[in-house]
């Protein structure tokens, strides 16, 4: 789980943060905090699906489910688990 | 009765929350035509005050130009006041098609379709030409009307970091499997005044078979050597697939907009774009005014040349006074204050000095990037700019921000 969180944190930092932004932690609110907008959520979902060979249904890829690295990791674990 | 007290209370609570957050928008009533010198009633009921307008989109000073007003009068007489119809039923006059031809020629495209506004053009264009099998990749700082249009479209949305070409290329690669790809940007970004890197974007779009849409609302009429827009400035005339733009800013400032570009894409908008199909035609009086504007612009570049000189003079003056500015070379010159309250206090102090300029803060601009956005016009004379510079300097001294860095200002006022 920790490895998964690190990968997500690294991706979100590279993808969404500007050079002079405050660093993120696992609980930083991403969508409600205005860091990730709803359009950009698409590429995050695609990154997760490609990286973990999973399919996250659109009704599960909600702004709430993607609102922090911790929440995203829980979601990904759920689908990785189902795959196994 | 479907508006009981509990519903009223709900909305009153929402309005109060907006007020409490300091985000309540209040109009200032202008009692004169749009110009560099205007007479303003603010707050409501206050005596009229003569001020210099430093925040209008009247870039070319044509909003109240006597020739444009005269042409509008003539259009009113010859074509009437309203058409009482959408375009495709009985709302298309000869002058509507004439304006479409003039815009096509001016922008160097294949065809043009008028919309009631550029907001409507942006709201309608994506759904008219894209489907769920396609992707829209937009700059993260595009105008709200493009964001709304993207939301209304079934194609997949994605974004790239502002003007970051490496990031855009990554996104074009990520979405290589999509049927169609469309890259979306403002030509000049309205809050920062910087210009999209259209030459590089065209090259990337060519490489990855993507279409390119540019909203040139803050460019048409004055950016580029003959004012055609950002595609002229970047040397890519004829290479942009769709340009959307407005007649509500430099091109007379009344209302209306258009989609201009590849013939088939424009035709799809005529067949499918809902704001075109279900909203009234542009009033004949406005079309007549814009036709005169186009005649003025085709005859001479005098106004855009004066605007360029004015903008350079203004930027140099503010820089020498010690303000922190956003980099750029357009007539949009943002004076950075970073703190939301400071931007409001600064705007009020300027108004007391006879200068009308508005402070912008989150959510209109990103958190911690509050600013006074100044906009220069060909209608400004040097004496207007000198007076405004004096006022800015006086207010800048009052708030002790002259010669200070971003970090200094944030340390004094917070973000």
Care to describe what's here?
The complex is a heterodimer of chains A (84) and B (415). With 84 residues, chain A is mainly α. Chain A is 50% helix and 0% strand. Chain A has helices spanning 2-16, 41-52, 69-83. The mean pLDDT of chain A is 87. Chain B is of the alpha/beta class and 415 residues long. Chain B has 16 helices and 14 strands. Chain B is globular and about 55 Å long.
- Which structural class do you get from the secondary structure elements of chain A? mainly alpha
Oligomer: heterodimer
Beta-sheet strand percentage of chain A?
under 5%
Using only CA atoms, what is the Rg of chain B? 22 Å
Instruction: Provide the low-confidence segments of chain B as ranges.
Output: none
Largest sheet of chain B: 7 strands, mixed
State the order of secondary-structure elements of chain B, H for helix, E for strand. HEEEHHHEHEHEHEHEHEEHHHHEHEEEHH
Helix content of chain B: 40-55%
Strand content of chain B: 15-25%
Q: Major β-sheet of chain A, in short?
A: none
Chains forming the largest contact: A-B, 9 and 14 residues
Q: What are the segments of chain A in which pLDDT stays under 50 over at least 5 consecutive residues?
A: none
Distance between the termini of chain B: 46 Å
Question: Structural class, from helix and strand content of chain B?
Answer: alpha/beta
Question: Strands, helices and their partners?
Answer:
The complex is a heterodimer of chains A (84) and B (415).
Chain A: H1 2-16, H2 41-52, H3 69-83
Helix pairs in contact in A: 1-3
Chain B: H1 5-20, E1 29-30, E2 37-41, E3 49-53, H2 66-79, H3 87-90, H4 94-107, E4 111-115, H5 118-129, E5 135-139, H6 144-151, E6 156-160, H7 165-174, E7 181-186, H8 198-207, E8 211-215, H9 230-233, E9 242-246, E10 257-261, H10 263-272, H11 274-278, H12 284-299, H13 302-321, E11 332-338, H14 340-352, E12 355-356, E13 359-360, E14 370-375, H15 382-398, H16 406-413
Parallel strand pairs in B: 3-12, 5-6, 5-7, 7-8, 8-9
Antiparallel strand pairs in B: 1-2, 2-3, 4-10, 9-10, 11-14, 13-14
Helix pairs in contact in B: 2-12, 4-12, 5-6, 5-10, 7-8, 13-15
């Amino acid at each position: 789980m920790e490895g998964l969180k690190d990968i997500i944190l690294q991706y979100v930092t590279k993808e969404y943060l500007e050079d002079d932004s405050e660093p993120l932690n696992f609980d930083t609110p991403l969508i409600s905090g205005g860091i990730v907008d709803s359009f950009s959520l698409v590429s995050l979902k695609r990154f997760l699906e490609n990286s973990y060979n999973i399919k996250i249904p659109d009704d599960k890829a909600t702004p709430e489910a993607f609102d922090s690295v911790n929440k995203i990791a829980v979601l990904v674990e759920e689908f990785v688990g189902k795959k196994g | 009765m479907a508006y009981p007290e509990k519903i009223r209370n709900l909305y009153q609570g929402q309005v109060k929350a907006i007020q409490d957050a300091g985000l309540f928008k209040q109009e200032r009533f202008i009692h004169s035509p749009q110009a560099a010198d205007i007479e303003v009633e603010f707050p409501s009921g206050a005596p009229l005050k003569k001020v210099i307008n430093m925040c209008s989109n009247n870039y070319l000073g044509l909003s109240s130009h006597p020739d444009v007003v005269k042409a509008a009068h003539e259009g009113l007489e010859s074509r009437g006041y309203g058409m009482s119809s959408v375009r495709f039923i009985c709302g298309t006059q000869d002058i509507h098609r004439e304006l479409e031809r003039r815009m096509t020629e001016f922008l160097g495209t294949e065809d043009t379709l008028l919309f009631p506004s550029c907001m409507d053009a942006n709201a309608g264009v994506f759904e008219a030409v894209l489907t769920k099998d396609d992707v829209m990749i937009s700059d993260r700082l595009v105008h709200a009307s493009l964001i709304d249009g993207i939301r209304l479209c079934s194609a997949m949305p994605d974004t790239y970091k502002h003007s970051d070409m490496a990031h855009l290329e990554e996104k074009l690669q990520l979405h290589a499997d999509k049927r169609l790809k469309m890259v979306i940007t403002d030509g000049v970004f309205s809050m920062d005044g910087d210009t999209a890197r259209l030459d590089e974007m065209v090259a990337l779009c060519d490489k990855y078979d993507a279409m390119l849409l540019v909203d040139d609302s803050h460019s048409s009429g004055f950016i580029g050597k003959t004012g055609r827009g950002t595609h002229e400035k970047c040397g890519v005339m004829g290479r942009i697939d769709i340009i959307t733009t407005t007649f509500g800013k430099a091109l007379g400032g009344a209302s209306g907009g258009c989609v201009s570009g590849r013939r088939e894409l424009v035709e799809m908008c005529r067949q499918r774009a809902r704001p075109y199909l279900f909203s009234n035609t542009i009033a004949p009086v406005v079309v007549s005014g814009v036709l005169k504007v186009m005649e003025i612009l085709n005859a001479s570049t005098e106004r855009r040349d004066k605007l360029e000189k004015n903008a350079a003079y203004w930027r140099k003056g503010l820089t020498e006074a010690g303000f922190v500015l956003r980099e750029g070379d357009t007539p949009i010159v943002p004076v950075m204050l970073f703190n939301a309250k400071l931007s409001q206090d600064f705007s009020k102090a300027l108004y007391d000095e006879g200068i009308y300029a508005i402070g912008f803060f989150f959510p209109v601009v990103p958190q911690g990037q509050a600013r006074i956005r100044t906009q220069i016009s060909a209608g400004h004379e040097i004496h207007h700019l000198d007076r405004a510079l004096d006022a800015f300097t006086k207010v800048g001294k009052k708030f002790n921000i002259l010669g200070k860095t971003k970090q200094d200002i944030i340390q004094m006022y917070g973000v």
